[in-house]
Structures are given as structure tokens and as C-alpha cells.
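Exam revision sheet. Question 4 asks you to relate a sequence to its structure. Input first:
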Amino acid sequence: MDWIRSHKNAYTLLNSDLVTAPTEKSAASIYEAMEPGGAIEFMSLDQSTNEIEELLKPIADRILAACGCGHEFKHLFRLTGQDWTYNLMKRLGREHVYARDGGVLLMKTKPLARNDHIFFSAVFTHGWGGARTRGAKLRKAEYLAEAFEADMIVISHDHTQNITRKNTLYIPSWKRGIGIHRVMLISTGGFRGYGGYPLRSGYQPADLGTPRIRIGKRMDENGVVRKDIHCSI
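Answer key, C-alpha cells:
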């Protein structure tokens, strides 16, 4: 939050699992919350909602998109029929950028030339299923890239930061010949430490945090404006 606030052109998307949301039907409530050492404490959902709202409020206008198909759907929506993430976004005044299952985010930056109509596209969704290896986790992003021809695929769920590229050849026009279409495949990582089910399931500990994506443009030697996308961990 502090990093986004301190950088003028920093934005974010919320890709679900903002809250663990223990309920009477979730393992988090009956198992981890009863941990004998008392090291695991779950605050109430009302407290969690208030805390997250206070955290996000200073950067509310920097939230470009949000989805709610992780714990918020699996636990809260199935139990109550209410969309917790939508209501959180409404409290922040950003319900218009909410897409429950994920979606396509379109972005424009300042034109470099009069004929610069370039825009950037990112497909985002929380993610699904289990995966143990880095390759298996990135394979999910590859599956999504087979459905969309976008600039970026952003997927979460697997608690591991990963970045790679998918390059395909295409024919942009009759005269220009063959070009390369690059798709950035991004797995966002997580912010919880090592313990609980990652330990008992034998997962590898992962760095906390999330990748940073930088979008920009450059003009080549022929005066053609091209996309310039980078991602770092």
C-alpha cells in the first residue's frame, strides 16, 4: 500500500483472496483456529472488512480492477449468498471496476505521436485447482493465454510469484510480413507466511509479495510506436 501511494503512476488490481473468511463449514474455522498453541487468530469478518477498507481507502482510486472468486466465493458466497468483494468495492466507491469471475482490463497511456492509438490488455482471474511445481502453476496461465490473445495474463491462487513469456508469430499486415506477439504470463504470489496447510502439504516456502508490471511505449527507428512491457519480482 505504501509503495503504491508513494509512486505517482502506480496502480493495482485485486485478484481475490483478500480475506481467509473462516466459516462453520471451512477448515480454517474448525482446524487452524483451534491450533493448541494459540498462534493462529482469526478476527471476525466485520473486523476484517473494516481493516481492509481502511488499508485500501488511501489507494482506492488506484484500483483498476477486482474480482472475488477465491475464498470470498468458496466460503462466503456459498454460505450467505452475498458477494463480499462487491460490497467491499462499493464501500470504496469502486464497484464499477468489479468483475466477479475476472475479466479483461484495457489501459491507455499518453500518446507518443498523433497516430498513437495503442492500448494495453490484461486478462485477470483468481485461479483454480492445485499445483505443486512452478511449471504446473505457470501452465494455468498458459491455459488462459490459449483462450485470450492479450498482452498480459494475470493469475493468482498458487502463492508463488512467477513470470514468463509466450511468444507467437503473426502477420500484422500485407506489407509488414511476420511479427512477434508477446504475452506476459504472471502469477502474483501471496502475502502469508509458511505454516498451516502449506507445511502439512509439503509445499515449498515462497517469497512474499507480488510482481510489478511496467507498461510503456517506445518509438522505433521507423517512427512506429510499439509496446514496451516489463515485469519484475
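Marking note for examiners. The helical segments are 2-6, 27-30, 45-56, 71-80, 84-91, 134-147, 197-200.
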